[in-house]
Amino acid sequence: MKCVVSFLVLAGLLFLIVPSAWSEPLPIPTINLNIGGSGESGQVSTVLKLLLLLTILALAPSILIMLTSFTRIVVVFSLLRHALGTQQLPPNQVIIGLSLFLTFFIMTPVWEKVNTQALQPYFNNQISGERAFELSSQPVRDFMMKQTREKDLALFVKMSKAKRPESPADISLSVLIPSFVISELRTAFQIGFLIYMPFLVLDMVVASVLLSMGMLMLPPIMVSLPFKLLLFVLVDGWYLIVGSLVQSFGPS
Questions:
Q1: pLDDT surpasses 70 at 198
Q2: Which helix or strand (DSSP H or E) is residue 83 part of?
Q3: What is the distance in angstroms between the CA of the first residue and the CA of the last residue of the chain?
Q4: Would you put residue 85 in left (φ > 0), alpha (ψ -120 to 50) or beta?
Q5: Whose CA is closest to 199, among 52, 79, 28, 31?
Q6: Which CA distances in Å does 146 have to 164, 184, 218, 241?
Q7: Which of 103, 131, 151, 216 could pair with 70 as two cysteines, CB 3.0-4.6 Å apart?
């Protein structure tokens, strides 16, 4: 109680001594942000460049997943893990990391073309932003066209009710991108089916042996898992699968 009374007395004395400190408003510092353009003709202002950079960064995960080889690779690796029956081994971080580096390896020729044909001329003020976008999208478009089935393209052209394109250059990105994605998913599931077959046969053999021995309570997965791992190591499975995945995309 004495501490409270002392605090009130001290506050009153301060109020009487410096009344002007309470009567005047507290000054608030002002912050002025002024971002201007470069002033040169044909050059995008700094604000637009910043906006474009933020937009690209926001869409970067979608671009990496949907417009590259990442989808096929990560789906195949996930199906391989389920076929082996190793639950969470390899962990998701390892699968995604390996898929990313394989994607960088496969897409390097495409990105080199984008850098040479579009980015460097744009940074050197040799072409406009619209022209840079057209030139940068062309190598990516060619890559997607090689991996997309005509049946999937026809499906989205029909659903979009657009005019039938006379050449691959007439196909819009809004039609090409979903066609490429479902084609990649189909190819990934085809590869996953081929991977599943030998492990499925091994599971059936182990289950039949356990059934004939009367071991009905013993889960077949517990017995077949070591044999699956042994088979996968003996045939050098990672070498075969990674090599087949990379070769399935062909030359970029």
A1: yes
A2: helix 70-84
A3: 82
A4: left
A5: 79
A6: 19, 11, 48, 21
A7: 103
